[in-house]
Amino acid sequence: MGKIIGICNQKGGTGKTTTAVNLSAYLGLSHKKTLIVDMDPQGNATSGVGLDLENKNSIYDVITGKTSIGDSIYETHWPHLQIIPSSIELTGGEVELVEIEERETRLREKIRPIKEKFDYIIIDAPPSLGLLTVNVLAASDMLIIPIQCEYYALEGVSKLVNTIELIKERLNPDLEICGVLLVMADFRTRLTLQVIEEVRRFFKRKVFNIVISRNVKLAEAPSFGKPICFYDRNCVGSKAYHTLAQEVIKYNLEDERFAYANEKQRLDLEKEVST
After folding, report:
1. Which CATH number is 143's domain given?
2. pTM of structure
């Protein structure tokens, strides 16, 4: 059965799109048929996989009923990875959705017919708690919440958690947090270790084992329209997202815990980036 995973955080710059693109690419490399749905009007996930938007349908056209979802899915250059691109028109999409019946579940209804065609559908949400993000929450089976390893790491996260609880009560009772992902870590600083400890104390077993460190290659890859595994597969960031994909694949939803990927691999990565 296909799984729909929303990548959400209302703060900007938390690594949502980086996670959506690179997790999806590694799921594809693991022979999992994967679809990215780019719900962020900035369209960074679309450009991050190297897709040219010219003369293409977008998720905006799908949710506003201008085209079918089947006619809006495009192949990428990467194995087992497809995408429904974003569009700048999504910026005004929330206003248009207000006039549409069942506006909070529009995305869910559009995705439902194709869900079983994919092993994973990864949705990159916009950095807000507006109607587009509500649609992502209503459509998803589970969520990944990227959090930066910085001083204000948990700022605003409680608001997101409250929104998730409201969505569970009113629109999507089966929604679960797959995991909180710590990103942009600098293991040379005491602050990073303190933030990791704080986040693990707050979310307990809902934190991914792998921590994504700051990595120049991760920042460079999108400008070449490539996921990190096709830009520099041997860099620390690439190895970390490979491990994340393994954790997601092995995640046991019923048990609400991770069948963690190789623990030695995680420790080796942390040692590598701290030197």
Report:
1. 3.40.50.300
2. 0.89
